[in-house]
Amino acid sequence: MAGVVPTAPEKSSDEMKNEATLPDLRPDAPPQYNSHFVPGPPGAAVPPPAGYPGGLPMGYYGPQQPNTFPLGQPTASTSLIQYQPGRYPMPNQPVAVAWMPGPPPVPNCPPGLEYLTQLDHIHVIQHFEPLEMITRLETNNRYDVKNNSGQMVYLVNEDTDDFTRNAYHSLRPFVLRVTDCMGREIMTMQRPFRCSCCCCCCPSARQEMEVQCPPGVTLGFVRERWSLCRAVYSIQNEKKENKMRVRGPCSTCGCGSDSVFEVTSPDGVHIGSIIRKWHGVMSLTTDADHFEIQFPLDLDVKMKAMIFGACFLIDFVHYESAPPQRSSR
């Protein structure tokens, strides 16, 4: 009959059962598996190994731990992956700081200065304060003191009230507190107010700073000396006897190069140097400076501390400029 499509004859149920049980003779055919799975008895609960809280390795986060997400909280209706596997900081966890290992006690060394007995180079790095750029208001200076390996040695924080900072700027009297890795104040530097409107050769106009170590015990003084075209300072002991002299360049701005302040003995023998590093545009637009201090390894630790203190007076006198003011027009 025209228009009728021929179809295969229907197979009986016995033939279809026999075909289902026949093995597949193709060479690449997968093996047959029994689909009747019988679950075994539940095993005993195994506690997570030490260091793996919640069954997850340290530094991994899961949706069952909502408080461990530092930047986002998962919702109950979704289970999206928030982070790739890796180590992320916990909330309110301070960033790890590599501190210099504590040295053993040193005889006849003021407490806290044992670190300096093992160093011949230290770096004083001032923090950059964006708030000063935005508000044009002076904030307390903060410094990191590091060794050549980048390990933290000390922290230095200014302790001056808001009115004094913004009224006197670089001429302000200040107190700098030096703390170690344990947060103990091991050194204090105090600078009294000196008016700069007088003649530069007038003793009352010259800047000075007292260094105390431990706080309350005078270690020495750093005093500005009159010079026609250079920055000159004298470093004195607690009896105000001259022990060293710091002689700066003719131009302390150091535009395009480092500014070197040479440290010598009173008779002119070279001892070390205080170098203000040049960092391009950042050195011109901000007062966040970087100083490198060099002195002999076997130098008396008290004199090392005095050279260290002289670095801060140099910073305030020559590089602590007032925040730029907006034009009124």
SSE map:
Layout: H1 13-21, E1 121-126, H2 130-135, E2 142-146, E3 152-158, H3 162-168, E4 174-179, E5 185-191, E6 208-212, E7 218-225, E8 232-237, E9 242-247, E10 259-264, E11 270-276, H4 281-285, E12 290-294, H5 301-319
Antiparallel strand pairs: 1-2, 1-12, 2-3, 3-4, 4-5, 5-6, 6-7, 7-8, 8-9, 9-10, 10-11, 11-12
Spell out the key features of this protein:
329 residues, alpha+beta, 12-stranded antiparallel barrel, 5 helices, 14% helix, disordered C terminus
Summarize the structure.
The protein has 329 residues and is of the alpha+beta class. The protein has helices at residues 13-21, 130-135, 162-168, 281-285, 301-319, and strands at 121-126, 142-146, 152-158, 174-179, 185-191, 208-212, 218-225, 232-237, 242-247, 259-264, 270-276, 290-294.
Note down, in words, how this protein is organized.
- With 329 residues, this protein is an alpha+beta fold.
- The chain is built from 5 helices and 12 strands.
- A 12-stranded antiparallel beta barrel has the order 1-2-3-4-5-6-7-8-9-10-11-12.
- β7 (218-225) and β8 form a beta hairpin.
- The longest helix is centred in the last third of the chain and has 19 residues, at 301-319.
- The radius of gyration is 36 Å and the shape is globular.
- The termini are far apart.
- Residues 55-89 and 323-329 have low confidence and may be disordered.
Question: What's the arrangement of strands in the largest beta sheet?
Answer: 1-2-3-4-5-6-7-8-9-10-11-12
Count of DSSP helices? 5
Q: Report the β-strand fraction as a percent range.
A: 15-25%
Rg calculated over all Cα atoms = 36 Å
Using DSSP, what is the number of strands?
12
Distance between the termini: 103 Å
What overall geometry do the principal axes of the alpha carbons give?
A: globular
